[in-house]
Amino acid sequence: DLQICQHRAPTCCTKKMEESYQAAVRRERTQSIQALNFELKYMIVGHITAFQEAFESLLRFAENRTSSLFETAYRPMAKEAAEPVKELFTDISLYILGAETTVESAVLRFFDSLFPLVYSRLINPGITDLSEDYTECLRLTRQDINPFGRYSKNMVTELSKSLWASRMLSQALSLGIEVINTTEHAALTKECSKALVKMQYCPHCQGLTLIRPCVGYCLNVMRGCLASVSELDAQWREYISTLEYLTNEMAASHDLEIALTGIRNSINEAILHAQLNGPQLSATVDKVCGQPKQQEGNLSSGNIVPVKEATETQTFVMAHASLNNKRREFINYMKRSRTFHASIAERLCDGDLVMRDSSTCWNGEDVV
């Protein structure tokens, strides 16, 4: 009653043993593919972690630089500016990790929160009554009167260019893991299970436990079994080309590191612009929002002189170098895995599974 290992000679197998063999080949095949995938998956997961760690350290550095701008140059509003600064960097982090948000909405929300502070602490430092309604009016007016000039839009443009590639790379790496996981759990067809049993276990039914399959026979069986996996070859090659493009984009002129550390200078320029246009802004705000209460002996905004700092040359050299090295190492490794799906049958038929140095091997019917 054997279905797979039928043979003219007497046999020591039963139908039940054949069923056990089918379960065994399915389990072994999954384990073999998992072992092949392990190094590639380990590499991608490691890079996701390293990328996120380096990115987080750059983000923390840029956030600290931005906070220090308020503490050194705009002390009257430093305490109240802490929350909007924190929100801005949280939004940037979420954007890179793939959240449904945009760089533009994050930056403009930050400037909406910043304008009431700049207006009441720097342009008109005598304002005492900053009610919720008045603050909200200032926030809404910001969108119409554009107190920060071109600097808010420039910041959106610069950040969008550099953060886009980082966001795409982050999503692409997650996609790579998904693809690898899918190939691991690709179901074997009944025909494939039978072919694998015939190749690996039918010799046992004749007592030939040490004979292994011929190389060519193994390749034919494996290619048939893994045809659906090898069909991924063209898309996998394209995927690696895309990864290469994204890592090059990140290292090009729209550098993530430069854009993040430039946030501080962009905000400084924007605040200076608003202060220079203080009288015109006050006139427009008074018309739209009314006049707020003033302290006796109004302070002149001229008392606050922002420190316009030169771009710092020291900085996060380590985080920057680490990110660049990780990108380079990773893309070189991924380029070597271009043929990963096309050569999966060859790699499964390598090593102990087949007979390489002997003159006798199993061809599916007999020892040859």
Automatic annotation (TrEMBL):
Main location group: membrane
One cellular-component annotation, GO: extracellular region
UniProt record, GO biological process: cell migration; positive regulation of canonical Wnt signaling pathway; regulation of protein localization to membrane
InterPro entries: Glypican (IPR001863), Glypican_CS (IPR019803)
Subcellular localization: Cell membrane
Pfam families noted in UniProt: Glypican
Membrane topology annotation: Lipid-anchor; GPI-anchor
Keywords per UniProt: Cell membrane, Glycoprotein, GPI-anchor, Heparan sulfate, Lipoprotein, Membrane, Proteoglycan, Signal
Family per similarity comment: Belongs to the glypican family.
Function: Cell surface proteoglycan.
Protein name: GPC5 protein
Species whose genome carries this gene: Burhinus bistriatus
Encoding gene, per UniProt annotation: Gpc5
